[in-house]
Write the structure tokens for this entry.
Amino acid sequence: MPGYGFSDKVHGATSIRTAELFTRLMTHVLGYERFAAGGGDIGGRVTRLLALAHPELLVGIHLTDIGFPNEPTGTFPSDLPNPSPTEQRFLGLVGQWFMREGGYAMVQSTKPQTLSYGLNDSPVGLAAWLVEKFRAWSDCAGDVERRFSKDELLTQVMIYWATETIASSTRLYYNDVRTAPQLKPGQYIEVPAGVAAFPKDLTLPPRELGERFLRVQRWTEMPRGGHFAALEEPQLLAEDIRAFFRPLR
């Protein structure tokens, strides 16, 4: 995505602009009349925004998380109408998770440039900032090398280090929280959606919550794996993507 890795280090990137960029890439540049999209975390947010803005172009979307209806603020509405006991319990767990793990998002969405000077100047600081997330958000039971080799972890760090994109990647948070939420209360994304829920991801929302704003046609409870699904469980993820999109071709 713009601002990450070997892409351009842009200054005004938002998830909305990224969704529009991918739309132009798929239609005007590559010439597709319809296509599929998928992703997780911010990639999932871009996918949902793309589906919201251009449902006529998409055969379906595949997600590893349902995101947050109040995107890009990163919250569920406090006045969720008639929440079920399961939904209420989940919303409470989300609040607890943000108290334990949400510090990175608060810093990146308020003071990204201050943070980035330190990370861009120190390979040890950059490694600590990134590897801590691979440990905390993966299905590794506290031992990060159960899931990722040193080579895999160092590759992730080196991509940011060599391209100096940690600043542009953190600024996306800052830009997004200053963008009005695109999914209005009661609004619905009509594109068929498949969700692969990995048990050690950041949060595990119930399907009924996803169905409030997504047209869920497939919901898979994965047996293992965490937030970094494509790196942790590539075969499970690829099989679920194929199974969801196969009847939509």
Remarks:
- The two ends are 25 Å apart (CA to CA).
- The first helix runs from residue 15 to 29.
